[in-house]
Amino acid sequence: MGAAGAFWGAGSVPLALLCLASVAAAVALSGVPRRILGVLLVVVGVAAAFNGHWLAIAGGVLVVVSGVLQVALGARMPKIGVGGQKTREHDPETDMWRALERGDDPTDDKAPGGPSSNE
């Protein structure tokens, strides 16, 4: 975010918007695509640092640092989405929502996710 502000101040609005979009992409991606994004950020940061304006140089350095972190630590960073969240084993509320997602009636005693299965 700091790099986007630096590029905006240097008059490089497209680079500022690219930095903001890369934040969203870094959160949404995982694995190899996240590392490819990191490499692209390093390339963009180095190219932007040659703009000559001191804010562009600062923004370029920040983008290079973030790109290197993406490449080095990208596999360890969490990805956005429900799949990465851990739920408690016997949470009645979660069991009811899962039953609804399957199309079962959680209030029906005969249904697999019904009240009698939680006892």
TrEMBL record:
Question: What Pfam families does this protein map onto?
Answer: Trp_oprn_chp
Transmembrane feature ranges? 36-69
Q: InterPro entries, per this entry?
A: Trp_biosyn_TM_oprn/chp (IPR019051)
Say which species the protein is native to: Lentzea aerocolonigenes (Lechevalieria aerocolonigenes)
Q: Per its UniProt entry, which superkingdom is the organism in?
A: Bacteria
Phylogenetic placement of the source organism = Bacteria, Bacillati, Actinomycetota, Actinomycetes, Pseudonocardiales
Protein name per UniProt: Tryptophan-associated transmembrane protein
What are the protein's UniProt keywords?
Membrane, Transmembrane, Transmembrane helix
| Region (Disordered) residue spans | 81-119
Regions of biased composition (Basic and acidic residues) lie at: 86-111
